[in-house]
Amino acid sequence: MHEADIRFLKLALALARQGTGTCWPNPSVGCVIVKDGRIVGRGRTAPGGRPHAERAALDQAGTATRGATAYVSLEPCCHHGQTPPCADALIEAGIARVVVPIVDPHPNVSGGGFEALRTAGLIVETGLLAQEAEDVLSGFLTRVRLGRPWVTLKLATSFDGRIATASGHSQWITGPEARRWVHAMRARHDAVMVGAGTVRADDPSLTVRDLGVTHQPVRIAVSRRLDLPLMSNLARTARDVPVWLCHGPDADASLVEAWNGVGAELLTCQLTGRQLNLTSVLMELGQKGLTRVFCEGGGALAASLLAEGLVDELVGFTAGLAIGAEGRPGVGALGLDRLDNGRRFRLVESRAVGSDVMHRWVAQHESE
């Protein structure tokens, strides 16, 4: 049954991946129920986090659950929240065997789901496709383990690493296919984050467009002093799509009031010297429930995140265009004097996207 287990569990993980960016603060989980080698039910966590994947799959399977195997991408919950425990639901449905890759490290679960299932006489098998599950659930797991969301830093640059000409002209370095990919990536994250300079220079909307997506990520701007234009796209649409502003404790009270007035949510974060402490920023976002943040610039924010070791994933879109040394760099000054002090990332994917190249990297652990 090992090959069949892999096949069905891969399907559960694929279902989980489909819900990424829509379920926070809950994890996006997939569940597949199999009876006599045939799929009788499948489900994933619904947008907003409920119902859970197991409940959706059980409802689809109906009475066929007796003696069946459930393949779930994360340990079933065992605590009473806004919905009953999924472990209890699997037991009551007569599931005989459960195959799950990893434990849920959340303190409300943390092995309790497996214990409940085994106590009720179910066969529980774990460890299969564990690394794949870690990848799919990286945002949720990072928030539980570190208290902050997973951070993806996206850079769209010329071949020589520039994001604009010396005059600031930047639209468009990459082609329409790459920009469409970026919108799809936004949709798979809970939030899109930029620095104050990007808001002032580009007046971005930071929404997902032209993909038929109804769910929009939270839009975050990091600005110590809140010196952002109150006639910007973010301000004008804050009541339609959430806008969160991360600012310092010394931000002008009148600006706090003004942004509150247009519908933005204000998050006061700590300072380190004269700059916002980005660890504090991300911990605040984690407290608010975010699990995955897509950072789109600018260069100063990118440099600060990299310098503080807060980038988990790098996504680059590189165009076949050279701008020259006078152009604006994609990453601000890092102050490195030796390459040994730079954090290395491991290449996990590269491909042509239209006339550009997309390359994706994840942070290396010290042991790698």
TrEMBL record:
PROSITE patterns: CYT_DCMP_DEAMINASES_1, CYT_DCMP_DEAMINASES_2. This is Riboflavin biosynthesis protein RibD. It catalyses: 2,5-diamino-6-hydroxy-4-(5-phosphoribosylamino)-pyrimidine + H2O + H(+) = 5-amino-6-(5-phospho-D-ribosylamino)uracil + NH4(+); 5-amino-6-(5-phospho-D-ribitylamino)uracil + NADP(+) = 5-amino-6-(5-phospho-D-ribosylamino)uracil + NADPH + H(+). Binds 1 zinc ion. Pathway: Cofactor biosynthesis; riboflavin biosynthesis; 5-amino-6-(D-ribitylamino)uracil from GTP: step 3/4; Cofactor biosynthesis; riboflavin biosynthesis; 5-amino-6-(D-ribitylamino)uracil from GTP: step 2/4. Residues 3-125 form the CMP/dCMP-type deaminase domain. InterPro entries: APOBEC/CMP_deaminase_Zn-bd (IPR016192), CMP_dCMP_dom (IPR002125), Cytidine_deaminase-like (IPR016193), DHFR-like_dom_sf (IPR024072), Eubact_RibD (IPR004794), RibD_C (IPR011549), RibDG_C (IPR002734), Riboflavin_Biosynth_HTPR (IPR050765). One of its GO terms (molecular function) is diaminohydroxyphosphoribosylaminopyrimidine deaminase activity. Its cofactor is Zn(2+). Pfam families: dCMP_cyt_deam_1, RibD_C. Keywords: Hydrolase, Metal-binding, Multifunctional enzyme, NADP, Oxidoreductase, Riboflavin biosynthesis, Zinc. Its EC number is 3.5.4.26, 1.1.1.193. Converts 2,5-diamino-6-(ribosylamino)-4(3h)-pyrimidinone 5'-phosphate into 5-amino-6-(ribosylamino)-2,4(1h,3h)-pyrimidinedione 5'-phosphate. In the N-terminal section; belongs to the cytidine and deoxycytidylate deaminase family.
